[in-house]
């Protein structure tokens, strides 16, 4: 079940968005087939858990070797199924390398038992410990914008924790991930605790019905449906959803750096990044210069699906025609309401959309309120920082954000007023890839976090408290039978030790 055409029957064709070529197919698995895969994973999990963090890390590091040895082939699959530039495709391998190295290096420390001091005098006779056990089977459901890097962000924490993982890549881009999972199962001698099941939304829903915990990345609509189903099943879920990330550029900013960051943050992956810059607010005194710098740079971007290894294009095509439609609708809506296009603004051959700068935009426009998920940068002039913060927070989303200023104290104060899961100061997108700090969305952008040091592994675990007696008495003062003098003495002791003034301590 780990790769394309693993079963006969219904199949899903996969096409290259840049030229429409059919590049492969994967099985469209039904509920029963997915349930059978999950049964196998559950059978293999206890042995995997018993390996301990070091044993499990050894397999993950072997997988990393295999991924690097097969980098070119895997990235070609990524590129073909997404139409990305080679540079954007290559970023997906760097995510895999970073995540595997970080979590394997820290697995033992993150999963270690935690000794805890008891609270209160009466509990000093006890030893307390918190130990963790993984959820047995984690379901990992991912979208199409990062076919290899996306699942990698989460699968490593879950495997290192000792869970088995059933992954469901997007039906639009299943090939690279299915091949990576085949590598795990067939090439490196790892235990069969990772599987890729392919199919559409129904396959995703079948996964949710089988697992003990769901890690989902994708749209708000699907995330909400998954959360409802998880609530019915009383299982936890962690959701990384859409974003409408704001960038704020203050008058004292290093303007050249801010302009370069805006272009990078807005256009990477053709704008199909959840933590991409979706809207920019610039203080009036530097607005004109900033807009000119950004427009010059956006107009110079080279677009296309370049040859593997050539690194000759900046951005590629978009992944789905439906997403290009959304980008086009947002641009048309903005123009109809008074916005101007300074560069781009139209579709390009091969499912592309020309990198676009929009000005004279406001919050009546869809491009400032809804997730565009495409290569557009709407830039709005603001009178001052208060207006910038108010507009940045005027959103249903709160994934990430960025702030450009040379004043560190001001940046610190302002970061506390921005309603988003992360704030990058003098950079864009970068906060989401700092593995020791949590990445998570506020408001409609998500529930829970990914990464975050130990939390990136512990989220796949259940905590188990172990309370052990230091002494073995035959009975305890609170056990039966109730003895009046003893109970009165205990009540007095509770007051004496717990109250904060003498009147209450003495019980008057
Ligand atoms: P989507 O929600 O349509 O699909 C995501 C995955 O969910 C796919 O694998 C799909 O088959 C599956 N699915 C669909 N219906 C399901 C159901 N009822 N039950 C279970 N699974 C189901 O999202 P998409 O269009 O593939 O991806 C784009 C979205 O992903 C954007 O909104 C983007 O912002 C978001 N995204 C978020 C992050 C993040 O970390 N916050 C990262 C990348 C993308």
Topology:
Blueprint: E1 11-15, E2 22-27, H1 31-50, H2 52-69, H3 71-82, H4 86-111, E3 114-116, E4 126-134, E5 137-141, H5 149-161, E6 164-168, H6 175-187, E7 194-196, H7 201-210, E8 213-217, H8 220-233, E9 237-240, E10 245-249, H9 255-267, E11 277-283, H10 284-299, H11 321-336, E12 340-343, E13 347-348, E14 352-353, E15 356-359, H12 366-369, E16 376-382, H13 385-393, E17 397-398, E18 401-404, H14 408-415, E19 424-425, E20 438-439, E21 442-443, E22 446-447, E23 450-451, H15 455-458, E24 461-469, H16 484-498, H17 502-505
Parallel strand pairs: 5-6, 5-8, 6-7, 8-9, 10-11, 10-18, 11-16, 15-16, 18-19
Antiparallel strand pairs: 1-2, 3-4, 4-24, 9-22, 12-15, 13-14, 17-21, 20-23
Helix pairs in contact: 1-7, 2-4, 2-5, 3-4, 3-6, 4-5, 9-10
SSE-based structural type: alpha/beta
Mean pLDDT figure: 96
What is the rounded distance between the termini?
73 Å
**What does the radius of gyration come to?**
26 Å
Shape annotation: globular
- Helicity level: 40-55%
How many individual helices? 17
Instruction: Write out the strand line-up for the largest beta sheet, numbering strands in chain order.
Output: 12-15-16-11-10-18-19
Count of distinct strands: 24
Strand content: 15-25%
Largest sheet: 7 strands, mixed
């Amino acid at each position: 079940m780990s790769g394309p055409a693993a079963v006969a029957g219904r199949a899903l064709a996969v096409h290259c968005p840049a030229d429409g070529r059919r590049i492969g197919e994967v099985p469209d698995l039904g509920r029963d087939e997915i349930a059978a895969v999950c049964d196998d994973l559950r059978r293999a999990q206890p042995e995997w858990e018993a390996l301990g963090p070091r044993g499990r890390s050894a397999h993950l590091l072997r997988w990393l070797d295999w991924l690097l040895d097969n980098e070119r082939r895997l990235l070609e699959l990524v590129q073909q199924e997404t139409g990305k530039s080679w540079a954007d495709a290559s970023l997906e391998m760097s995510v895999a390398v970073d995540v595997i190295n970080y979590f394997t290096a820290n697995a033992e420390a993150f999963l270690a038992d935690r000794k805890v001091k008891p609270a209160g005098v009466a509990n000093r006779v006890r030893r307390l410990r918190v130990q963790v056990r993984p959820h047995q089977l984690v379901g990992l459901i991912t979208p199409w914008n990062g076919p290899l890097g996306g699942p990698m962000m989460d699968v490593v924490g879950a495997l290192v924790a000792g869970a088995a993982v059933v992954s469901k890549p997007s039906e639009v881009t299943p090939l690279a991930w299915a091949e990576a999972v085949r590598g795990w199962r067939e090439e490196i001698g790892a235990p069969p605790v990772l599987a890729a099941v392919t199919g559409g939304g129904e396959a995703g829903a079948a996964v949710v019905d089988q697992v003990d915990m769901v890690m989902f990345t994708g749209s708000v609509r699907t995330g909400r449906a998954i959360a409802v189903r998880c609530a019915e099943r009383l299982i936890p879920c962690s959701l990384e959803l859409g974003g409408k990330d704001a960038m704020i550029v203050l008058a004292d900013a290093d303007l050249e750096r801010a302009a370069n960051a805006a272009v990078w943050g807005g256009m990477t992956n053709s704008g199909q990044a959840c933590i991409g810059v979706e809207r920019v607010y610039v203080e009036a005194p530097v607005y004109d210069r900033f807009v000119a710098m950004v427009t010059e740079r956006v107009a110079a971007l080279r677009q296309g699906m370049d040859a593997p290894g050539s690194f000759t294009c900046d951005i590629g095509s978009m992944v789905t025609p439906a997403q290009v439609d959304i980008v086009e609708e947002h641009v048309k809506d903005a123009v109809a309401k008074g916005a101007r296009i300074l560069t781009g603004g139209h579709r390009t051959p091969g499912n592309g959309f020309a990198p676009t700068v929009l000005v004279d935009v406001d919050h009546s426009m869809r491009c400032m309120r809804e997730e565009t998920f495409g290569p557009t940068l709407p830039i709005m002039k603001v009178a001052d920082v208060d207006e910038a913060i108010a507009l940045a927070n005027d959103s249903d989303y709160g994934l990430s954000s960025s702030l450009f200023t040379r004043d560190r104290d001001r940046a610190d104060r302002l970061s506390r007023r921005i309603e988003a899961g992360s704030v990058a100061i003098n950079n864009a997108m970068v906060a989401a890839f700092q593995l020791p700090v949590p990445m998570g969305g506020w408001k409609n952008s998500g529930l829970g976090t990914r990464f975050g040091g130990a939390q990136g592994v512990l989220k796949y675990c259940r905590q188990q408290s172990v309370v052990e007696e230091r002494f073995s008495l035959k009975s305890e003062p609170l056990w039966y039978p109730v003895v009046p003098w003893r109970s009165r003495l205990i009540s007095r002791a509770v007051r004496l030790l717990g109250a904060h003034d003498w009147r209450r301590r003495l019980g008057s």
